[in-house]
Amino acid sequence: MAGRRQARTTTHRAARGTFPGWPAAALAWLAKAFLAERERWPLWLPVCLGGGIALYFSLSFEPPWMVGAGAVPILSGLSWLLRRRPAAIVCLALLTLAVGFCAAQVRSQWVAGPVIKGKLGPLSVAGDLTVLETRQHGVRITLEGLRMPSLGQRPPPRRIRLSLRGQLPPEFEVGARVRLRAVLLPPAGPAAPGAYDFARAAWFKGLGAVGYGVSRPEVLAVAGAGAPPTMAVRLAAWRRALFEHLRAALPGEAGAVAVALMTGERGAISEATWRSMRDSGLAHLLAISGLHIGLMAGWLFFAVRLVLALAEPLALRAPIKKWAAAIALAGAFAYLLLTGATVPTQRAFLMVSLVLLAVMLDRKAVSFRLVAWAATMVLLWAPESLLSVSFQMSFAAVVALTAVYEGLGPRLLGWRGDGGTGRRLLLYLAAVLLTTLVAGAATAPFALYHFNRAAMYGLAANLFAVPITALWVMPCALLAFVLLPLGLEQLALLPMQLGVGVILAVAAEVASWPGAVSLLPAFGVGLLAAISLGGLWLCLWRGRWRLAGAVAVALALAMIGFADPPDFLIDGKGKAMAARLPDGRVVIAGGGRRQGITVETWLRRWGVAAPDRDAGAMRCDRLGCVLRQGGDTIAYARDPRALQDDCQVSDVLLAAVPVRRGCPSASLVIDRFDLWRRGAVAVWRREGGIRAVGANDDRGDRPWSRHPGSNKRK
Q: How far apart are CA 529 and CA 548, in angstroms?
């Protein structure tokens, strides 16, 4: 005790000698709080790792390979030399940042492949069919092992994805070698500055082109006719066969959702169902995540343990709990493969597997250390997942729930053990309510950032739907898998379909309530980072100083309301333009079926449900459009013949065609060349002047950005 008192006095004196007055006291208090949390330091390992990954993706240029690879050994040496000094913790944090940076850099080069530079076709494409996905208006396929004679000496992409409509040959199945004529397009960049970057996501998926077929596919070789298919192709074929079998057994919309929960194939779900599930806050039930894999593993664990407990010799002499955990782990792995083994599903399986391994090793099943190890492994394996909404929302929910139940767990177990069936039922309902509240609050900022919408009655919907999913739907899915080899799966599929129907009814009812959805304009990634770090500070520490994280989160959330959306947006090809009027309405010029996703993204980022159809707000003809706002004239020229007049009267000129001469009246001109170079452009008109930001301005020259000035692009 005397030694501790002397150490505190020495620390306080040292701080007081360096910083006079209250800064010395504050520094001493922070040092004391930090040292008191020594056992929580490892929990910040994935946070520092994510910081290095975020640094890599925030750069506007591709750094030399020695930046990350060279920093790791240098910082490792410094950490070893300073291992007995306080500076060692700083070196370890910097080392973890460098490891994250290096992991992202290595991953980016590992997945590198040719990407087409512009529109190609129609041209003949032959390849191996590796993925076949059902969609509402056709199918979507992924081809590998490509052969494209039209490219000449240029290497074809490693993988392409095409949308098909119409009748398909009977032999058209996963593993077949097919040929068709298709139009290929490079993966699109952001539809607006700061919007989702599909080109970056496609780069890490190995997609060198996307497009659509313009002819009926021809099967050159049926599945299995050539070289033995890889295990991935076999799994895809099994999943497709299972999907078709279950879809035939479960027709209707409830059947489509039930099949999605068993196979991960969500393409058969209608847009109306997606809308009602999204607006009611139940969309997370449609995506295979930790909830589904956890329920599948949990029910399998308890069922196997119950069966083994019925055998008295085993129950008394064998570690049946560990056996049940091992069987549940194998079942969760099988469910992972059946549902496609996507990155979010892999992350969920990793979390569940760590819990089950902890049971087998007699360790605490749920703890922050397991969450930290799971996050570390995911970030090292797929660093790009840090940028995905699924990673952010799933770990936000897990971290928040772990923090809450870490404090309440002992009390809940005490209340549960002292009561009867009635108390246990009430505790379960209270736990569902608390879990929904905590998970909803933790994931709400990420939903607002990525989707610009919030389900206002999600708590009510989840209070009904989650117990139905946990106690009715998923147990039936597990039983259906068990009965499938016996041909008796209908005994479980029909009750499962009824349960899904109840969930869809709840979603439709809640989504129909007035004010079910709140829309919000897009805000910057800096606020999201502040919310994330503040939430981590609040959850990972235990002392009173963690409340500073709550203050940071509150301030960042308050600043979301001050988001400054642009006044005008024009897409990267000049095919569509949109304007936000002073009263908040949005009017659209141009567009069409191919610009539908772009326009939808604009509306979502403006926080608007639908465009205004008032023809008087913007006057258009076949040459272009003119909008008069606040005494200024904004012109959108779609034809070169419109430039002669627009250059004389417009204050802002947005042109889908090249502007080859000066425009004396316009203080800002964005023409076809600017759009080609900068991508989609957003324009702000303020008292201080006019500001334009292009989607490519911050993307820079990266492997996935297709920057026009790059000569390194494949």
A: 15
Token pair recorded at residue 47: 């946070």
pLDDT one-digit tens code per residue, 165-177: 988 888 888 889 9
Which one-letter DSSP state was computed for residue 214?
-
| Residues 185/115, Cβ–Cβ less than 8 Å | no
CATH architecture classification, 120-229: Beta Barrel (2.40)
Q: Does the structure show a pLDDT above 70 at 10? A: no
| Degrees to nearest 5, angle at CA 48 with 46 and 53 | 90
**Could you report how far apart the first and last alpha carbons of the chain are, in Å?**
66
Which residue matches tokens 């991960």? 264
For 20, phi then psi, to 5°, come to: -70, 150
Residue 420 pLDDT greater than 90, yes or no:
no
Main-chain dihedrals φ then ψ at residue 131, nearest 5 degrees: -140, 135
**How do residues 319-346 score in pLDDT, each as one tens digit?**
999 999 999 999 999 999 888 877 778 8
Identify whether the C-beta of residue 180 lies closer than 8 Å to the C-beta of residue 685. Answer: no
Residue entry with tokens 């091992």: 326
CA dist 596 → 352, 474, 588, 603 (Å)? 39, 36, 11, 11
- Report pLDDT for 201: 93
User: From its phi and psi, is residue 689 left (phi > 0), alpha (psi between -120 and 50) or beta?
Assistant: left
Q: Report, in angstroms and rounded to the nearest whole number, the Rg of the chain calculated over CA atoms.
A: 28
- DSSP tally for the chain: helices H, then strands E: 24, 18
Residues 6 or more apart in contact with residue 301 via CB below 8 angstroms: 324, 325, 327, 328, 356
- Condensed to tens digits (0 to 9), the pLDDT of residues 19-64 reads 456 777 877 888 888 888 888 999 999 999 999 999 999 998 899 8
DSSP state letters, 283-346: GGGTS--HHHHHHHHHHHHHHHHHHHHTSHHHHHHS-HHHHHHHHHHHHHHHHHHHTT--HHHH
Which residues share a beta bridge with 626? Answer: 619, 635
- Residues 108/703, Cβ–Cβ less than 8 Å: yes
Question: pLDDT at position 238, please?
Answer: 87
- pLDDT tens per residue, range 640-656: 999 988 898 898 999 99
Of how many residues is the chain composed? 714
pLDDT band at 706, cuts 50/70/90? low
Q: Report which residue type is found at 611.
A: P
Segment 249-266 shows an average pLDDT of 91
The tokens describing 91, both together, are: 């070196």
Relative orientation angle of helices 525-540 and 45-58, to the nearest 10 degrees: 170
**Domain boundary assignment for the chain:** 1-27, 37-110, 120-229, 243-381+454-519, 525-560, 568-678
* Residue 165, helix vs strand vs coil: coil
CA 603 to CA 545: how far, in whole Å? 41
SS (H, E, C) 37-62: CHHHHHHHHHHHHHHHHHHHHHCCEC
Residue 615 pLDDT level (bands cut at 50, 70, 90): low
Confidence of residue 161 (pLDDT cuts 50, 70, 90): very high
Give the integer Cα–Cα distance in Å for 442 and 455. Answer: 14
Task: Provide the pairing of β-strand 218-221 with 209-213.
Answer: unpaired
Q: Look at residue 394 and tell me whether its pLDDT is greater than 50.
A: yes
Say if residue 585 is exposed, middle or buried (CB neighbours under 10 Å; 0-12, 13-18, 19+): middle
- Inter-residue contact 630 to 582 (CB < 8 Å): yes
Contact assessment for residue 252 and residue 483, using Cβ atoms and an 8 Å cutoff: no
Q: Are 314 and 305 in contact (CB under 8 A)?
A: no
